[in-house]
Design goal:
alpha+beta; globular
Length: 276
């Protein structure tokens, strides 16, 4: 049912150092949003210990997405692409978000993880690494497909960055407990390769700089945010009390300001192995 990611990748001849660094990245950075905790018994202890920060994460994730929404095409070139190319750009965009700001939802964490797991498994031709989504729920994960035996395993860094789940166990014990919330008409599935990892490494510095510039240009005051019905709805969805709104906005902006002004080699102080 369950196996450590480190043991699983090592048993497939993968690079243990890359995997260990990936796990540390998730352990040392911010947890998932508050809404993720209630019904998931497999949430990692490293996330539970930081649960008090999860409301802040919800607000920061919103601010990042809001700022990038009008700049995504110019940064990542998401227009006039084939379906395959569009999925690849989606992968790079989500991974850039997490790597630059060390915060994100399931798609950001899974995209980041898929690229580095493809690196760790670059010499294994019998094990595929895929970024996949469930078409009825707002959930992205990494899926390992084993050619020999046609077996499938799930890595869900949004739940537990240390563990791998058998597909059937994951569906029953985690996926089915996530509220039905269709976000795409079709299931998203992209095979992630070592060549994609290399391409992402080449593009990431420029992507990251442009994302930071977008946040700098779109920065708003707390009063400006609080006049926006959309962010007020986000606060309610995240179960944040009205008395907390202004302070959480201030704290979130201070965190993002530090990320925006950080030098490239300081963007991931806890993930030096992933710095360009």
């Amino acid at each position: 049912m369950l196996q450590s990611l480190q043991e699983y990748i090592s048993s497939k001849g993968g690079n243990g150092e890359v995997v260990a660094e990936l796990i540390r990245t998730f352990e040392n950075n911010l947890p998932p949003p508050e809404s993720f905790f209630p019904d998931n018994k497999h949430v990692a202890d490293c996330y539970k210990e930081k649960r008090s920060q999860s409301k802040l994460v919800s607000v920061m994730s919103y601010l990042i997405e809001e700022a990038l929404s009008t700049h995504r095409n110019e940064i990542f070139g998401t227009t006039t692409k084939t379906k395959q190319e569009a999925m690849k750009i989606f992968l790079y965009a989500r991974a850039t978000h997490f790597r630059t700001f060390n915060v994100g939802a399931c798609s950001h964490r899974a995209s980041f993880a898929a690229l580095y797991l493809a690196k760790a498994l670059k010499d294994n031709e019998n094990l595929g690494v895929h970024l996949v989504s469930d078409p009825t729920r707002d959930q992205f994960v990494v899926m390992f497909s084993e050619k020999i035996g046609s077996r499938y395993f799930i890595y869900d860094p949004f739940s537990n960055p240390q563990m791998v789940f058998k597909l059937d166990y994951y569906r029953k014990n985690i996926l089915e407990k996530i509220p039905i919330k269709p976000v795409t008409k079709d299931r998203y599935k992209l095979k992630v390769t070592f060549e994609m990892y290399n391409e992402f490494e080449q593009r990431w510095p420029n992507y990251s700089l442009q994302c930071k510039e977008a946040l700098r240009n779109e920065k708003k005051t707390p009063d400006e945010h609080l006049s926006d019905p959309a962010i007020l709805q986000m606060f309610q969805n995240a179960k944040i009390e009205e008395s907390e709104y202004r302070q959480i906005l201030t704290d979130a902006q201070e965190y993002l300001d530090k990320k925006i002004e950080a030098k490239p080699d300081c963007d991931n102080s806890s993930t030096r192995g992933f710095s360009p």
